[in-house]
Amino acid sequence: MVKAKKWILAAEFAGEPKDSNFKLVEEDLRALKDGEIICDAVYLSVDPYMRAHVFPVGSCIIGEQVARVTESKNADYPVGCLVQMYSGWRSRTLINAANKTATEAVHLLKVTDLGKLEPSLALGILGMPGMTAYFGFLELCQPKAGETVLVNGAAGAVGSAVGQIAKIKGCKVIGFAGSKEKCDWVKSLGFDHVFNYKEADINKSLKEAAPDGIDCYFDNVGGSFTSKALQHMKEFGRISVCGGISVYNDTKPALTPDAFMTILSQQLRVEGFIVTRWWNRFPEGKAVMKKWIDEGKIKYRETVKEGFENMPQIFMSLLKGANIGKMIVKA
Amino acid sequence: MVKAKKWILAAEFAGEPKDSNFKLVEEDLRALKDGEIICDAVYLSVDPYMRAHVFPVGSCIIGEQVARVTESKNADYPVGCLVQMYSGWRSRTLINAANKTATEAVHLLKVTDLGKLEPSLALGILGMPGMTAYFGFLELCQPKAGETVLVNGAAGAVGSAVGQIAKIKGCKVIGFAGSKEKCDWVKSLGFDHVFNYKEADINKSLKEAAPDGIDCYFDNVGGSFTSKALQHMKEFGRISVCGGISVYNDTKPALTPDAFMTILSQQLRVEGFIVTRWWNRFPEGKAVMKKWIDEGKIKYRETVKEGFENMPQIFMSLLKGANIGKMIVKA
Fold it and tell me: Which uninterrupted H or E stretch holds A2?
């Protein structure tokens, strides 16, 4: 009998996640049937969206991982082959790789075409966060050369990619991040203006960096940052609402100045999205991002922490901004 | 020397408009030069947007009117011909109808193609409010047959048209208006559910009328109505932000529950607009609306009040909901 571990939600999140929200449980995996495989986690993803997602107490905490096949009764997935899947915070997963329904549920994919790149990138710049930046920015903001783009969470996995894509598209890019080290890195990526939101006056910074206003705003942060940013949008500006890390821990919706009158007077288009709407186009997005990486046009960074047992702590540190680039847990 | 009267802004609006915001002044019109005409106001439009518009103290209050040419030095605009133009709250206007720039500034048009219909409709269902409904709803909400549409201000010039267009497109339509008489009329237009927002519990009404949620929301009202409506939007819902009559008199932006997290989690698309973005397509929109009126598919109503001297009072009553359908001032 093979043992596996998983992190389950022990109590619903309320405010900042704490140790008591998480429980590590062990389970026995049964013997494999035809078509099934067992995979051992190699890299696990922790992402801010996990805080916002609502799922039942007692269920495994959601998330994607890169795993290696360690037992196989499926010739298409031999032992040693690398896969990625949304199997949650599990050290070891038994899955029927031949069953289309089961496979779709966890979006099982082989990790391929990375060349010399680390497989962890399948969870970052060449995975969900990269696609979030690629589609969420290009499809919803529809940036044009010469336009001014604002992105917050600019040192995160998504924000750092958005700003670089905007530069590739010929835009002027303004980024906000939360420490000097982060700002220095973001600046090195080619952003035109970078501010530390913990120190800078946001209104003053935006007025200085975008005196004529902002055409595209890619929002990872929400809350009071967004209320301020809204006042700097140009007529016909586009806002892609990707996340709200500043408000995920709020226990009820904060009161903010009415956004709709600004949306009206400036004729803004504001759209929220979850990246899975573009699942079918991921191969296209990954191919373009891979090409840009190979050409040196997109740079990335990972913050790799060790230990499946440490996942709750690593996740909680992520929500406090401990990462530069993509936060990865090495199992 | 021909005399003319105009209403100017005597003091910036602050809170509810009051008599002291308006001043009636007389002016002398000079003799006509080649290409110029003088037109006498026949019908003047008062619309909620006039409250939201910011313009300098001392200038003529903005607005469109239907006027009759009473003197002419332009063969294209003979005496007796009807025009419409954004010349503001003026009893009599001198304008160079041959000067493209001047003409564009006030969007001078001949009133034509109305058949047996009253020329005042050029300010309503076949004019700006009708086009606001037609383009603002169809272009931004992109309704599909079978979808559920919510519109507030449903007894107004715009809202009543939006609901009927939605019915033509095969949607289920929920309307909110502010009196029994208004609700009865809106119901007679074919809306599926109509509620009096002054008496009904908005959340309960929406839950009852749209148990599966709202696909398209056409917002004329803003404020707390919108905060509630947001919670009933279906995933991938579209919101067309047309107006905010409930908040126009606010002296500073009200605090409302953060809309962005709902926009995110439901993947909503919210777009504000000013109808002038579709100027070039007005002929197309007017032709379709005219056809629908001729076929009996679109009904309209006007609240006609008399007296150029009474414009401020009529406008103030409009902001308090005194109109059913389009509010018109007969000069």
Answer: strand A2-9
